[in-house]
Design goal:
Elements lengths: L5 E2 L2 E2 L11 E5 L5 H9 L4 E3 L7 H4 L6 H12 L9 E4 L8 H10 L4 E6 L2 H14 L8 H6 L1 H5 L16 H4 L2 H12 L4 E5 H6 L1 H12 L16 E3 L2 H7 L13 H8 L5 H12 L1 E3 L7 H22 L10
Parallel strand pairs: 3-5, 3-6, 4-5, 6-7
Antiparallel strand pairs: 1-2, 8-9
Helix pairs in contact: 4-9, 9-15
Length: 325
């Protein structure tokens, strides 16, 4: 199959292919990707995908042909793109843990750029665990129990019924940023990868934002006000969450959720969809992640210490304080 792409205005075959994204915010989860995507969306030279996380290249486990790519990805996620946008991008954090997804992206755009935020895993993991519960991928409310189940789950045992991708519950691997960054470097190259440390992103948001724009070859838009916090959430009623939220199946097809049925009933996406969105909002409640217990701090630190040492070497920066505080 011949791949077609456009990069920085260079169109290889305009008649068959539409504009392919220039950059991908691939992770890590619960490390500030939502905040960064909002800042980037406000830049008039950037077109960010709708939705922020389509996860197209993890749902589609093969290289699609041009027609399928246009129909199922580009037309759906970048219909709002205009010639004035210098860069197109999206923010599927699942790509960081799926090397085949990175390879498929590079198949269509060998010059694609990748951004990663990394965070102290002792802070990131409680937030991530809560998020997995909210998304109905995790059924264990106690992080210690979920952590202990990793080996069994790798054997295909004790997986939640609604979990479509077991890898999201391998907590030690999800937080192994050193291994993930090294893998990304090998596939995409260091020059096409930009790593942001969450601590820097919080303490000097403007400076980090400007560096990101430079990496993307996009002009600074004058933003100086950056929202600092996005609250973690949990559902009020699990039974309602099961109706409102059903993720894509492992083969990439969308199951018949309440939202899908609403679209069929009202194709213009107005009244019925607004009702579903109201229900979704009503079922959300703010909830702060439960910090790791001292015992789990010791266990997680001992497990991830070699990886943090490796990440420090990759970034040429000492991050040992993350687990040696």
């Amino acid at each position: 199959m011949i791949a077609y792409y456009r990069m920085s205005g260079d169109i290889l075959n305009q008649s068959e292919s539409k504009r392919f994204p220039d950059f991908f915010l691939v992770g890590a989860p619960r490390c500030g990707t939502t905040a960064l995507s909002r800042y980037l969306t406000r830049n008039p030279q950037i077109c960010f995908s709708r939705p922020k996380e389509p996860h197209y290249f993890t749902k589609t486990r093969y290289i699609p042909d041009t027609e399928e790519l246009n129909r199922d990805y580009l037309d759906r996620c970048f219909a709002h793109a205009t010639p004035s946008h210098r860069a197109l991008g999206e923010g599927s954090v699942s790509y960081l843990y799926a090397p085949e997804a990175i390879e498929h992206i590079l198949h269509f755009n060998p010059k694609a750029r990748f951004m990663v935020l990394v965070r102290n895993p002792l802070r990131m993991l409680p937030s991530y665990h809560l998020r997995m519960q909210f998304l109905l991928q995790e059924d264990k409310a106690d992080f210690a129990e979920a952590w202990e189940l990793e080996s069994a789950r790798k054997r295909g045992e004790q997986l939640p019924k609604r979990c479509l991708e077991p890898r999201v519950l391998f907590y030690s691997e999800v937080a192994s940023f050193g291994a993930q960054i090294e893998q990304l470097y090998k596939i995409a190259g260091r020059e096409q990868t930009h790593v942001i440390v969450f601590d820097d992103f919080v303490s000097n948001t403007l400076g980090e934002y400007k560096r990101i724009l430079e990496f993307l070859n996009v002009d600074f838009d004058g933003q100086t006000e950056f929202e600092r916090r996005y609250e973690s959430q949990m559902y009020r009623y699990r039974w309602l969450q099961q109706i409102l939220f059903v993720p894509a199946t492992s083969d990439g097809k969308i199951v018949d959720t309440l939202q899908q049925r609403a679209r069929k009933y009202n194709p213009d996406g107005t009244k019925k969809m607004s009702f579903v969105k109201r229900l979704t909002r009503l079922n959300k409640v703010p909830k702060s992640p439960t910090p790791l217990t001292p015992q789990m701090v010791d266990i997680v630190s001992e497990t991830l210490r070699p990886d943090i040492r490796h990440l420090s070497q990759l970034l040429d920066r000492d991050l040992s304080h993350w687990i040696d505080e």
